[in-house]
Write a sequence for this structure.
């Protein structure tokens, strides 16, 4: 089961990584400072080590990982997986980060700008939840922004949208790292505060900064400024007021241009609190049109340092949703012998029935005899044959002959090479059973999503679907992700561990009950019913809705004693919504012929409706809501 | 509209309803009648044409209508509450000699014996027609004019079966909804007042066009007065019968009829009964005036609703009485019948008159319009169980589930009614054609499945000439030469062996399609000009906006909206055939061009032929939600629409919005005759076999059920159409329980979401299953479903089939 992602946030001073589930809960986390200012190869080495540590510390198997999302500062081309430029880290121009990491890790990888990742994290799991148009602005070492418009990340024409830090707020201001003058980043970020504090220390102003930073004025930082300001130092207060004012001007531009409903502010500087933010709010309101005042909620980050990691991981979930990343679960393979859309009888609403091949009962009346073997098998539909004879020479085993104007297939000679199928244009020879991935199955089921109307959905049937538990679980869990109603039709003759793993993804179980007496059951189905009754009792204790299905088979259970015993047993179960009784029919007869198997009920006439109704009354008398099917 | 064989009147069973004794009696009597021919209209019209030979044609025809209404036999049958008859007897077809007459003499002895739509002809009637009436009409009819003007190549295109427009010039236009609400609210007196108003403008003018229009305005007054007088004849008759009867209840009813017919349609309706009676008179007179079919009644549940609520409020009207009046209206609509030449009849068999009644939908303001009458009309269908009128239910996202559930319950009765129309696409499709929002929300269905704005749209929003797309494809891979007749009207781009790629083949198809589309447009224009000059309808024009204001008949450009559409037939076959050729010839090289050509020419004969057919059948088929082939169908329609886009109708530049072509696939039962001239085709279809109907899949090629069919259909360019037809068969067992009915509601909601235009359901009964047992080839697509198992019915052995037939009967 793939259910986890890894998020990595490559910042200017640290790399943070986390192993995260769908609800953004951390299973494990890791942080590293050792790569600072390193070339890309060393950063990749470090990231790979961190992923290994995450997996080993949590003892999570790598098969559970859906993919790795990476947020990194700079101009990122996410579609091509390339870092265009990075101002914090040297030697990164045009570095193919995505494919390099993918090759090293063996997981799908997605990369994006770190502010975009943080914005996405806040939008999906943090302070931006419920908003429609949201901006996330970070004031930490540097200053950046991620934009969510109409619920999607907005990246712009060349992927660099949101670079608020390099908008010019004062053309006569100091020179910025980008070469321009007076960028917002030269005033309102950690680096700018550091620089301004240093500049102050070069003057003769009397300030506490000198003492809080010890004797090394070159090492003064924004945190020193905050400390000094908290002690009332006028110089520090002025520096913060100025940074806050520019911060506010930056926000005003955002409100003025994008009119978002929410702005989430994050990054280390925001922790300084009112000393910085009061002037920020003031400047914001002074610099926007009056109708826009209070138009946007300004809220502080909820995820803080985790925003980048969570958002990077969320990129993977998003990509799966959009089909850009195929999770392993979609590739789980199973043996399917039919998919029937517009199915009306196996659960509520309109449904798509997926028939899984393989069953370990061999009920003598079974109407899908081609479902018993889990392997693909050859079938010959006499009706379709127009006697061209092309298949005769193709059968190396010599199993096909023309006899008395009919084609005769000797099944005992068949070695299942299926060569005949290729020559048969009319599909008289067909292969029953096809290997499909869970993704293919669910994609087919989703073709009818317009018709499910909140009630209908997917029914797994067969054969016995729980005999392919991994595949069944994959199909059901994918269907659940898509919000479909899910049901299973089971004969119950499987180990409980096969069934129990499916229950979390099921809304309804249609559970076959054939007989209460173990010996009779064994005689007609090849197995006794001990496990079946136990499983039925356990399903009845789960929170899955339960319908008990009773096939009415003459000579087996269609008698008062058998049915009454069954009714009494079912009565002991909780959660039984309905009892369905199915009158004996012979619709499977042609299929027995097609696969060359003899049919024990060959000469048994189908049950008439009045008889079916009579047996239904046995359950009605016990107070059950009974549905009679033909 | 497509009425499947299960729906044709001969198979309508008597004594099946739980209607009142009166309705049951009237209904059973109607069903007992063998349709016949009535000579009265032919006689009266001929008299008037002769008498008014000097009058302008519009006035001459107005006089003919007035003379007919004044002198035709009228009757009131015991028990009738809604009165007014089309001919001397119920289900007797009047003759419209002014449209076409040549066909009558050669066919008259066959009327009673032809394969379908038979009519009994009384010897007296035959004598009068052949000796007294028809000689006058030689070379004087609409058909004679159109035939004379038709270019020979266009006529040949029809002869070889690529296009067909003969119905339009033998039987006239129809396909229209008159402004019935106006008559209910203002009476015909209101219409006369408008005409008089315009006449004042005309007086003293020297403008030639204005002067010419005087005749139309005067003709409007003549026919409206004649209509009121016609009603007065019924008032008089009712009074006379009342005096004669001893039955007090019936006497009271007759006196009531007298009062009603004195008031309407001349004056505004005052009660629900008057509104129904007035609407019926208007509808009936348009049917007598001209020969077309698909005259439709519009949104009956909407325009009679104010009268209904007022009557209910005063206690004058009960549920039973409402139901009674509507059932009487239904019987009246069923009694209308028309006779066509066999060449035209076979395109729409089962005596169809395509009189559509629309219920439900939205108001002009976009609010849900479903009301009590919508439900009562569904009940009326269930109780009368007749094939006419043809009821359409509009639905949209705001339609109550309960209404859809009642529709499902009505569909279950098995008459394919109501046919479901999806507001979510139709309204946008109309707006796309230039219709105002308010008018688009107020649309109603005409004839079969085509949408129009009641009282504002010209004739034939669909129903211009047929285009046989499969025949077009056959020509395309035969160098433009028809393999049956040897005719080559438009040289092609080579034969199958000459095409280097699928694109070459498709280009050849598109080229032929362009040629024959143009031929169809010419056919239409010649027919339209003849209709304008020979068959103006003053009464119908008076009831379509803005004819009176513009002083023009509909055909002269009087209607507010005038978009038309031809009928593109065989989309599914063409897509399947192109797909099969693409795969076998160009992609996988499993067959050679020579092999294909000889096999098709040999109609898949012999083992080798069957092998090729099976290879063709293995290619993906339209209707199974397989994009590869569905998108070919889409491309064919897209290209058709692109080709037809520049063409204009004869009304272009004369006033109406539109005057161009949209698409339509509502090809009635033409799929059978259109298949006849086509040899075996690469979709696996044998020579002469019917082609697919509407946009439905070709029979026997839908293996994935109705949801897949709906998905395929909704990939087509529906927004650009004016009509789209999808027929789906359901087994009665699927609707046997309340849960089953709800599932049909889900199916409809899905169709709504996918933006399909129209869907109707045929619920097969055991009779059909029995027929399927006898003729499995014709029922290849019949699916039966039981728990956890489903099968093609015809694939089952006889004993199993018998079993299912028994179950089915139980289910019903």
């Amino acid at each position: 089961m793939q259910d986890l992602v890894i998020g990595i946030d490559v910042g200017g001073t640290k790399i943070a990584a986390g192993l995260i589930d769908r609800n953004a809960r951390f299973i494990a986390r890791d942080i590293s400072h050792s790569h600072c200012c390193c070339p890309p190869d060393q950063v990749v080495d470090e990231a790979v080590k961190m992923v290994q540590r995450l997996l080993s510390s949590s003892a999570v198997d790598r098969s559970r990982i859906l993919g790795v999302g990476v947020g990194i500062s700079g101009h990122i081309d996410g579609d091509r997986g390339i870092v265009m430029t990075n101002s914090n880290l040297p030697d990164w121009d045009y570095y193919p980060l995505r494919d390099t990491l993918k090759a090293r890790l063996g997981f799908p990888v997605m990369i994006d700008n770190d502010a975009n990742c943080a914005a996405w994290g806040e939008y999906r799991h943090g302070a931006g939840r419920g908003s429609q148009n949201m901006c996330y602005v970070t004031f930490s070492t540097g200053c950046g922004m991620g934009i969510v418009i109409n619920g999607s990340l907005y990246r712009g024409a060349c992927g660099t949208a949101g670079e608020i830090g390099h908008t010019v707020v004062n053309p006569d201001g100091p020179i910025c790292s980008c070469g321009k003058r007076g960028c917002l980043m030269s005033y309102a970020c950690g680096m700018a505060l550091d620089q301004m504090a240093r500049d102050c220390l070069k003057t003769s102003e009397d300030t506490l900064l000198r003492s809080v930073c010890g004797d090394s004025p070159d090492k003064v930082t924004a945190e020193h400024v905050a400390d000094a300001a908290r002690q009332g130092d006028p110089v520090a207060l002025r520096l913060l007021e100025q940074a806050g004012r520019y911060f506010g001007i930056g926000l005003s531009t955002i409100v003025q241009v994008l009119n978002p409903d929410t702005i989430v502010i994050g990054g280390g500087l925001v922790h300084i609190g009112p000393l910085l933010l009061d002037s920020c709010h003031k400047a914001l309101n002074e610099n926007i049109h009056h109708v826009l005042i209070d138009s946007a909620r300004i809220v502080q980050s909820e995820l803080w340092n985790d925003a980048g990691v969570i958002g990077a991981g969320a990129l993977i979930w998003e990509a799966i949703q959009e089909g850009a990343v195929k999770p392993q679960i979609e590739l789980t393979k199973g043996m399917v012998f039919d998919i029937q859309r517009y199915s009306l009888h196996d659960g509520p609403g309109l449904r798509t029935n997926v028939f899984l091949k393989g069953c370990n009962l061999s009920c003598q009346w079974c109407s899908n005899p081609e479902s018993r073997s889990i392997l693909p098998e050859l079938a010959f539909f006499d009706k379709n044959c127009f006697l061209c004879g092309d298949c005769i020479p193709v059968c190396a085993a010599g199993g096909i002959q023309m006899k008395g104007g009919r084609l005769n297939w000797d099944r005992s000679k068949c070695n299942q090479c299926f060569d005949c199928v290729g020559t048969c244009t009319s599909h008289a020879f067909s292969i029953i059973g096809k290997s499909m991935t869970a993704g293919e199955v669910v994609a087919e089921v989703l073709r009818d999503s317009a018709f499910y109307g909140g009630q209908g959905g997917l029914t797994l049937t067969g054969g016995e679907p729980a005999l392919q538990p991994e595949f069944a679980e994959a199909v059901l869990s994918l269907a659940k992700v898509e919000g479909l109603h899910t049901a299973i039709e089971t004969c119950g003759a499987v180990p409980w561990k096969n069934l129990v793993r499916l229950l979390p993804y099921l809304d309804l179980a249609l559970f076959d009950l054939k007989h209460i007496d173990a010996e009779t059951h064994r005689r007609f189905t090849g197995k006794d019913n001990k496990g079946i009754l136990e499983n039925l009792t356990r399903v009845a204790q789960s929170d899955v809705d339960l319908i008990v299905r009773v096939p009415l088979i003459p000579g087996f259970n269609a008698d008062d004693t058998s049915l009454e015993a069954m009714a009494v047993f079912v009565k002991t179960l909780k959660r039984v919504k309905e009892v369905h009784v199915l009158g004996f029919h012979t619709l499977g007869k042609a299929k027995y012929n097609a696969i060359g198997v003899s049919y024990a009920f060959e000469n048994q006439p189908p049950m008439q409706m009045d008889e079916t109704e009579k047996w239904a009354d046995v359950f009605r008398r016990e107070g059950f809501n009974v549905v009679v099917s033909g | 509209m497509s009425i499947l064989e299960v729906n044709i009147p001969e198979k309508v069973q008597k004594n099946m309803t739980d209607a009142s004794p009166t309705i049951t009696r009237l209904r059973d009597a109607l069903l007992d009648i063998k349709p016949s021919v009535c000579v009265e209209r032919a006689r009266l019209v001929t008299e008037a044409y002769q008498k008014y030979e000097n009058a302008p044609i519009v006035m001459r025809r107005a006089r003919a209508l007035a003379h007919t209404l004044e002198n035709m036999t009228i009757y009131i049958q015991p028990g009738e509450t809604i009165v007014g008859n089309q001919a001397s007897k119920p289900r007797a077809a009047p003759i419209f000699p002014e449209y076409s007459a040549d066909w009558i003499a050669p066919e008259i002895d066959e009327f009673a014996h032809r394969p379908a739509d038979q009519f009994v002809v009384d010897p007296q009637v035959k004598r009068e027609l052949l000796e007294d009436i028809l000689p006058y009409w030689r070379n004087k009819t609409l058909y004679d004019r159109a035939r004379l003007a038709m270019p020979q190549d266009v006529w040949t295109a029809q002869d070889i079966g690529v296009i067909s427009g003969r119905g339009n010039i033998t039987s006239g236009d129809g396909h229209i909804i008159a402004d019935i609400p106006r008559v209910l609210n203002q009476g015909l007196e209101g219409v006369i007042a408008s005409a008089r108003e315009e006449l004042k403008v005309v007086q003293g003018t020297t403008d030639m066009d204005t002067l010419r229009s005087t005749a139309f305005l005067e003709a409007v007054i003549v026919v409206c007065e004649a209509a009121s007088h016609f009603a007065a004849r019924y008032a008089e008759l009712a009074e006379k019968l009342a005096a004669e009867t001893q039955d007090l209840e019936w006497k009271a009813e007759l006196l009531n009829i007298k009062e009603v017919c004195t008031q309407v349609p001349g004056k505004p309706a005052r009660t629900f009964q008057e509104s129904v009676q007035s609407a019926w008179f208007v509808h009936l007179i348009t049917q007598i005036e001209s020969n077309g079919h698909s005259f439709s009644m519009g949104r009956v549940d909407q325009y009679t609703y104010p009268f209904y609520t007022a009557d209910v409020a005063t206690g004058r009207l009960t549920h039973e009485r409402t139901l009674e009046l509507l059932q009487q209206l239904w019987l009246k609509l069923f009694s209308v019948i028309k006779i066509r030449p066999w060449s035209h009849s076979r395109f729409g068999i089962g005596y169809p008159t395509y009189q559509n009644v629309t219920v439900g939908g939205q108001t002009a303001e976009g609010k849900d319009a479903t009301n009590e009458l919508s439900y009562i009309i569904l009940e009326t269908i269930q109780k009368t169980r007749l094939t006419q009128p043809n009821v359409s239910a509009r639905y949209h996202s705001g339609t109550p589930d309960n209404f859809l559930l009642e529709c499902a319950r009505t569909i279950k009765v098995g008459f394919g009614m109501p046919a479901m129309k999806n507001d979510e696409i139709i309204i946008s499709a109309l707006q796309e054609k230039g219709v105002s929002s308010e008018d688009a929300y107020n649309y109603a269905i005409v004839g079969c499945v085509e949408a129009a704005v009641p009282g504002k749209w010209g004739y034939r929003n669909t129903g211009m000439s047929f285009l046989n797309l499969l025949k077009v494809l056959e020509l395309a891979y035969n160098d433009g030469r028809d393999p049956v007749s040897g005719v080559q009207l438009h040289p092609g781009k080579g034969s199958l062996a000459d095409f280097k790629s699928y694109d070459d083949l498709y280009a050849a198809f598109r080229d032929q399609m362009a040629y024959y589309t143009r031929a169809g447009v010419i056919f239409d224009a010649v027919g339209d000009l003849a209709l304008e000059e020979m068959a103006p309808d003053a009464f119908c024009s008076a009831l379509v906006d803005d004819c009176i204001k513009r002083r023009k008949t509909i055909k002269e450009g009087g209607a507010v909206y005038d978009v038309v559409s031809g009928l593109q037939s065989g989309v599914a076959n063409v897509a399947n055939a192109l797909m099969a050729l693409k795969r076998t010839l160009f992609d996988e090289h499993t067959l050679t061009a020579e092999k294909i050509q000889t096999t098709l020419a040999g109609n898949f004969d012999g083992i080798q032929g069957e092998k090729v057919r099976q290879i063709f059948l293995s290619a993906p088929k339209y209707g199974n939600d397989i994009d590869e082939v569905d998108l070919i169908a889409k491309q064919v329609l897209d290209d058709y629409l692109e080709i037809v886009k520049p063409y204009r109708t004869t009304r272009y530049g004369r006033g109406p919005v539109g005057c161009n072509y949209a698409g339509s696939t509502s090809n009635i039962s033409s799929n059978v005759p259109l298949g006849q001239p086509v040899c075996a085709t690469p979709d696996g279809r044998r020579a002469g076999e019917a082609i697919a109907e509407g946009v439905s899949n070709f029979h026997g090629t839908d293996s994935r059920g109705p949801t897949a069919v709906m998905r395929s259909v909704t990939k087509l360019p529906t927004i650009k159409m004016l009509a789209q037809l999808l027929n789906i068969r359901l087994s009665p067992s699927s609707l046997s329980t309340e849960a089953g009915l709800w599932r049909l509601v889900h199916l409809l909601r899905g169709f709504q979401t996918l933006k399909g235009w129209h869907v109707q359901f045929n619920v097969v009964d055991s009779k059909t299953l029995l027929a399927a047992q006898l003729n499995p080839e014709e029922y290849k697509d019949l699916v039966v479903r039981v728990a956890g198992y489903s099968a093609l019915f015809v694939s089952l052995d006889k004993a199993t089939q018998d079993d299912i037939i028994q179950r089915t009967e139980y289910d019903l």
About this structure: The longest strand of chain B covers residues 657-664. Residues 208-244 of chain B form the longest helix (37 residues). The CA atoms of residues 403 and 409 of chain B lie 10 Å apart.
